Amino acid sequence: MDNQPVQPVLRALHILEALNKETVTTLERLHERTKLPKPTLVRLLETLIAGKYVRRVSRRAGYSLTARVLRLSDGFRHTDQVVEAARPVMHALTAEHKWPVALATFDGDAMLVRTGTLRKSPLGTGPDYLDARLPILLSALGRAYIAFCPETERQTILSVLRLSKAPTNAMAKDEKAVTRLIAEIRKRGYASTAPMPGEPATGLAVPVMQGNQVVATLTMRYFGSAMTEEEATRRYLAPMRAAADAISASLAD
Predict the structure, then answer these.
(1) Is residue 210 classed as helix, strand or coil in its secondary structure?
(2) How far apart, in whole angstroms, are the C-alpha atoms of residue 91 and residue 59?
(3) Of these four, 60, 79, 83, 214, which has the most CB atoms within 10 Å of its CB?
């Protein structure tokens, strides 16, 4: 029996590991990290794209992982530590303050809602956004991410969004508006949902940090008819920050 390792499989896994180090990675950077010839890289990347584990962002920006890679570790107890660390903290937050909260992670060009407490909240109405992909520059979750992530990552994300034809990403083309938005969020320390006609609920979101990296964002959704943004931040910003810090501390244990 031939027990020699299957080299293409090992190379593909090596590529996934290299892609996991950055939000978006160019072919040149992958070549530097993996030491694989570029023709081999392109062939394996096309295979991973066909399997929906990788997406080609653009010829210039390069490649990024998709949420499908999470399926590779579904059977591992400690998979996705940030979600596991967040759940008890989020449930306690909703139990005390009643409003639903949700946690999202970055997913290429959007935020992927990973877990939430809508069903645990007596004030939870409206759609359940679990597994939904929310726009970076319109959702509170996305705004909190792009405002607090490292500058190099922010610029990469914005370059991707500028290439998008989706109306939800149109703001990325207005550099001055984006700069003002990010400066305001960083000054306040939280992000709010962009005003949307007919949407009764709004989000108040904060980042979950590890060093200078944003590993997730956390939002509380409340009704604008029930309180102003000023009142919501006065009541809930400190508990939200404490919850984000508790999640971060759990990840460091």
Answers:
(1) strand
(2) 42
(3) 214
Sign of torsion, CA 238 85 126 132? positive
Indicate the angle between helix axes 38-50 and 27-34, nearest 10 degrees. 110
Question: Of all residues in the chain, what percent carry a pLDDT higher than 90?
Answer: 60
Burial track 210-226 (b if 16+ CB lie within 10 A, e otherwise): eeeebbbbbbbbbeeee
Calpha distance 219→206 (Å, rounded): 7
* CA-closest candidate to residue 220, choices 92, 86, 96, 101: 101
167 Cβ partners below 8 Å, 6+ apart?
none
Residue 38 in contact with residue 27, Cβ under 8 Å? yes
Q: Which residue type does 111 have?
A: M
Segment 13-41, tens digit of pLDDT: 889 988 987 788 899 999 999 999 999 99
Which stretch of DSSP H or E encloses residue 20? none
Scan for tokens 């890679």, then name that residue: 69
> What is the DSSP code string of 155-201?
HHHHHHHHH---GGGGGGG-HHHHHHHHHHHHHHT-EEPPP-TT--E
| 159 CB-near residues (< 8 Å, 6+ apart) | 60, 61
User: Crossing angle for the helix pair 81-97 and 229-252, nearest 10 degrees?
Assistant: 140
How far out from the chain centre does Cα 103 lie? 9
For the stretch 67-122, pLDDT in tens is 888 777 655 443 378 898 999 999 999 999 999 999 999 988 899 999 999 988 88
Residue 135 CA to residue 146 CA, distance in Å, equals 11
Of 225, 219, 220, 218, nearest in space to 198 by CA:
225
